[in-house]
Structure formats: C-alpha cells, structure tokens
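Protein modeling request. Please complete all fields; requests missing the sequence field cannot be processed.
Requester role: graduate student
Desired output: 3D structure, token encoding
Chains: 1
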Amino acid sequence: MPKLDQSLLSGLPPFSLLQPQQIREILDHAVSRRYEEGATIFREGHDADRFYLLLDGYLRVVRTTPGGDQIIVLHISPGQLFGIAPALQRATYPATSIAAAESIALSWPAGLWPEFVSSYPGFATESYKTLGQRLGQIQETLTEMATQAVEKRIACALLRMANQSGRKTAEGIEIAFPVTRQNISEMTGTTLHTVSRLLSAWQKDGVVQSTRKHIVVTDPHRLVILSGIQS
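Delivered output (231 residues):
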C-alpha cells in the first residue's frame, strides 16, 4: 500500500506517546484494507492471527450467547484498536467484528504484538488503557441488559451511539452510521417488535426520528430522562 503519513496517526491513542520514527516503524509492518458495510472482519472463536486499527468507519462487536442469540456489545470508532486478542492472552477472537459502515482498517500479524508492547512503552500504555475502557463499556452494557427495564435499555443504547458518533443537524443529533431496529434489538436483548413499538412512540412524541437504517435524536434531554441516567 502507499506509505501512510505518520503525522496523520500521531494524535491517535496507540501512537500519541510515540516519536514520529517509532510510528513509522510500526506503520511499515501494517496492511490496509477497506471493508464494505456489513462485511465481517473476523469471527468469534477463529484464530486471532491479526490485530487492527480502525482508520475510518464504524464497527459492531457481536457476541454469541450460549443459546445462540447475537448480542451487539460494543461499537468501535475511528482511531481505536480492535481485535487485540493478544492483549487478553487469547489465541482466538472473543467476539465477531462487523463493519457498521464502509470502513478502512490497518492490521498487523498477531505475532508482532509482544514486540510492539516491549519496544514501544507508549504504545503499550495507551493500548491497555483502551482495553480497560472497552471492558468497562461491555460490562456496563451487560449490566443494563440484566437489570434495566427495556425502555431504559433502548434509550441508553441510543444515547451511547449518539455520544460516540453523533453529528449535529438541523433536526437534532444524527447517529453517524447505519443502524436498524434489528441492530437495536441485538444491543438491548429485546425483540424487534418491542424496539419498533418504542421507536414509533418516541417518534410520535418528538424524541427521535427513525427511518430505515437512520436515526436522529431530536430531543436528547427527553431521551436522557427516558434512560434514567442521572444528569
């Protein structure tokens, strides 16, 4: 691939504490690839042969329950590492990664992880910080699914996506990547019918605008109240 300018990556967490030459050394080992919306980048349980950095787009991280249900536990934003099974001392991926929108990612052979961690302390510090934050987000999502009423779960899921990727429009805060009602049901452990019923009611009340694969939060304050989050 054409050489990436390391200055484009210097502000991203894995690289922010590194010198330009160190970033160049890491990038020289990278492969770049584009993924269409809906493409699976890797699957839960498969050999973790590479780890990745998302340059552009958004990803869904999906886990399969013992009963075979799919749960979306996380979304990955640009500038974040993912597929970092070596950081968990795992030989297989703990979840499936799917492109929520057209995406571009860099990747490296998993065998380079120990070398990067030992040779570039700043890379290690930022990577493990990201891992800790992500595990906390997953725990928060699973706790919501186990303890909260469905209306609150759906409101929390919409707020989380709006906070992560939202862009201001004339109508409100638009979630920047395509999201379907089926996706939301998989994020919240509820049925498609329940998601459709609540989104239709909230649209009638002016809280959201929901069309095919497109959601705008038109009244964020009302959604916060519905979520039960203390402001």
